[in-house]
Structure formats: structure tokens, C-alpha cells
DNA sequence: ATAATTAATGCAACAATGTTGCGATATATA
DNA sequence: TATATATCGCAACATTGTTGCATTAATTAT
């Protein structure tokens, strides 16, 4: 079987994401990592971390992709990322709102498997 | 003042979007328009139509941008696009669900100005 | 109907972002 | 320490979106 390895690039990138209180884009991670590795490597590490369920991918309102660490217990049976994200239109910070759970009624002829909710406006720091 | 003009490109693109029951990307519009105009013109026409509030922009789960016509009455006082979108993971169709209204409770220290909700799963055709 | 104004277009050139192939490197294991 | 192979670096490429400018065409005025 295909195993996964802990490399310096992977460790560094994961630390950067874990220590950030906002979601980070590929470019932001590259800057913060001080070019510790190639641009392509960052893409591949991010894919791996998402696959390992250590971080999750967020699509921002403008279509940019951001990454944040997963704060759930890793032994959950049902593992979803159905929490809301907030995108501040002033400081552009994207944060996970793990406690907010949206409710909605869907027509029965749809099968909903995942939700991706993003709110925008002003965050507490910018309010 | 700067007026807007009705050109063949604009008319054609708007017709394509209006007659589609799913949201369309720039590339899809280009294909459907049979290369009636330059790639850049499509970008500019789409920006104009969004600015005129005739169509609205949707960010799909994968970060791709799609466009759909607005179905609201144009004399509404409050004009928002806070409806849910559904993205089918099989046929990749993105549709507007104008009737579904999500509810949620936000912490008071956030100011929510806009919402962007996308559900994914299987649409009625693929179920 | 014709001329004048300028919004809109086409084209080229560029920037940003993401992907792929492959030889070289480094990690985990024996 | 030796081996297997996951991962990396690099180059090359694809896609998507932007900008500047000369040309074209839609609207308005004459
Ligand atoms: Zn903010
Ligand atoms: Zn999150
Ligand atoms: Zn479908
Ligand atoms: Zn819509």
C-alpha cells in the first residue's frame, strides 16, 4: 500500500496553517514559508494534507482557495466540514465558525452530501 | 455620463444565459456562443451584465465562476442574491434554488452583509 | 440621411494560478 | 547500512483573467 511520509516541507506547511487563526491561500503559505520549497511542492503537500483530513479547503467568495486546519476530534464517525466560514470584506480574513450551524429545507428530489456556506461582511476586528 | 449600449455580443451572451437552466462558466458561454466574439469581450460583457444586475455571479465549490440570470422583479427595493445554489457532483450542473432560505444564528460581534451558500450532492436528474 | 461622439471590440501581450512528467533526493523500513 | 519508493525540484505547459491601444460600431445630434 501507499504510505505517507513526514517531510520538512509537509511539517513546515502544516505548522504554518495550524498556527494561523485565519485560512491561508497557496500564495500566502508560500510567502510565510519563506520559500522553503518549490511552488509545486506546496500544491502537492496541500493536496496530501486535505486527503489526510488534517486541513480543509475553503473556496472564498472571490473564488480564491484557502486552507485551514481541522478542529474536530479525529475519531469522529461522521466526519464533515459543514461549518460556516466568514470572509471579512475589509481585512480579507477568512475564519472558520465551527459553532454556527445553518438549517434549511431542501426539496426531496435533491440529495445533499455537503454544504459550503460563506458569509461576508465585517469581522469583530473590523467592526 | 457613461451610457451602456446594446451590442450583438451582449445580446447573444445574455440570451445564452437566460435560456440556460443551469449556471454557465465563461468557457461554457464561449463554446455556446460559437466564438461570436473575442474571449476578452465575453469577460467584459459579463462584468457589464453583473453591474447592470441582469445576471449574477456564482462561485462554485471548486472555485470556478459561473453566471446565471436574475429571476427577481427588477423594481425590488432591497435587491440581494441570498438564495442557495446547488452543485451536482455528477453532472456538474449549478442551479439557483430561489425558494430555499437558510437560517442561522451568528455571534453578535459579526456584521453579515452577504451570504454565499452552495450545497452539493446529486440533482434530481442524477438521483 | 449623415456626421459626430464614444462605448465597445479585437488583438497582442502579460500576469496569476494550477498541472504534469521525469530525473534526483530523502524518508521509512528491513 | 542497504533498499524501496514517496516526495521533491525543475522545466514546460495549460487555463484563467487582466490591461493598453488602435479600430469598429451603437447612439445621439445635426
Ligand atoms: Zn476584518
Ligand atoms: Zn473551516
Ligand atoms: Zn446532476
Ligand atoms: Zn443564483
UniProtKB/TrEMBL annotation, chains A, B:
Listed name of the protein: Fur family transcriptional regulator, ferric uptake regulator
Cited InterPro entries: WH-like_DNA-bd_sf, WH_DNA-bd_sf
Amino acid at each position: 500500500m501507499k504510505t505517507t511520509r513526514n517531510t520538512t516541507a509537509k511539517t513546515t506547511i502544516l505548522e504554518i496553517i495550524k498556527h494561523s487563526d485565519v485560512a491561508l491561500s497557496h500564495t500566502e503559505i508560500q510567502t510565510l514559508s519563506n520559500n522553503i520549497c518549490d511552488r509545486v511542492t506546496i500544491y502537492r503537500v496541500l493536496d496530501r494534507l486535505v486527503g489526510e483530513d488534517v486541513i480543509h479547503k475553503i473556496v472564498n467568495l472571490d473564488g480564491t482557495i484557502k486552507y485551514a486546519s481541522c478542529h474536530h476530534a479525529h475519531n469522529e464517525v461522521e466526519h464533515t466540514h459543514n461549518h460556516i466560514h466568514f470572509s471579512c470584506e475589509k481585512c480579507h480574513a477568512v475564519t472558520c465558525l465551527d459553532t454556527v450551524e445553518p438549517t434549511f429545507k431542501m426539496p426531496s428530489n435533491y440529495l445533499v452530501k455537503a454544504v459550503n456556506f460563506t458569509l461576508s461582511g465585517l469581522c469583530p476586528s473590523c467592526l
